[in-house]
Amino acid sequence: MQQLKQKFLDNLSESYDEKEILSLFFQSVQKVTGCSKSVLLADPAFSFSDEQEKRLDAILIRLQAMEPIQYILGECEFYGLSFCVNPSVLIPRPETEELVEWIVSEHSGKSGSLLDIGTGSGCIAVAAGKFLKSFSISAMDLSGAALAVAKENAEKHHCHVQFMQADILKPDDVDFDEDFDVIVSNPPYVCKGEKGRMSQNVLGYEPHLALFVPDDDPLLFYKAIALFGKRRLKAEGKLYWEINEGLGKECVALLASLGYRDIVLRKDIFDRDRMIRATL
Fold first, then answer.
1. Angle formed by the axes of helices 123-131 and 94-107, to 10°?
2. Distance separating alpha carbons of residues 89 and 195, to the nearest angstrom
């Protein structure tokens, strides 16, 4: 195992620091062997079969090309749950876990209905459904490929979610049977002009459809979702967003102009403006 670990360190040192490389190594070995990290660490003389070495070499090649480990392994942990992911969906982020925690903490023990707009992997909808047992959960996405992943994750976690393929920019095509107590969205919010500040493993692999908005209309999706919320949120319904950290004040102003109240702009663990909650 030491020899293979050194191979990862030697071949990935230009792109990752040592701590990251060791994390990538153990994630890869755990996936290929099915052994936990503690078992591997307890046996430094652990040996791999020829087939396992071939699979690890293939993973290393993809890591050298800056492909995200989550896509290589086909899974990602989110809110204590394992989610299937592929390049059709964004890789769930820790700040999105904070958004889910906000929703769960405010609605735990209550009954109601929740809609996740732009569900991607389904991580928000499924995590909410697992912890808000008395809520009916719905989710929509423009991408059929993303919805296939979301449905797989809902089935994996035995979570009933009503899915719909629809475009929030064409709200008249969104035809759910009920209005909602909660609408949540982590929509595209990265301006195309920000591409130069993004890493290659995001730009080269994650779906641009779920990432980018025009530079001249950065609130495109927030406007559409806020207007949809005016029509489909119940009285006292809550709207939750993950936002571009540079657009917090603009998002608050948009919501206020449309008559939302009790608007809260919240920072994430890195002290960045990343979440909003508003009441209709």
1. 30
2. 18
- What pLDDT was estimated at residue 41? 77
User: Considering only CA atoms, which of 219, 274, 269 is closest in space to residue 243?
Assistant: 274
Dihedral pair phi/psi, residue 188, rounded to 5°: -60, 135
Domain 80-279 has CATH 3.40.50.150: yes
Domain range summary for the chain, segments of one domain joined by +: 2-65, 80-279
Residues making up the chain, counted from first to last: 280
pLDDT, tens digit (0-9, with 9 covering 90-100), for 75-99: 999 999 999 999 999 999 999 999 9
The string of DSSP codes covering 211-238 is: TEE-TT-TTHHHHHHHHHHHHHEEEEEE
Q: What is the pLDDT of residue 187?
A: 94
Tokens of 73: 């392994």
pTM over 0.85: yes
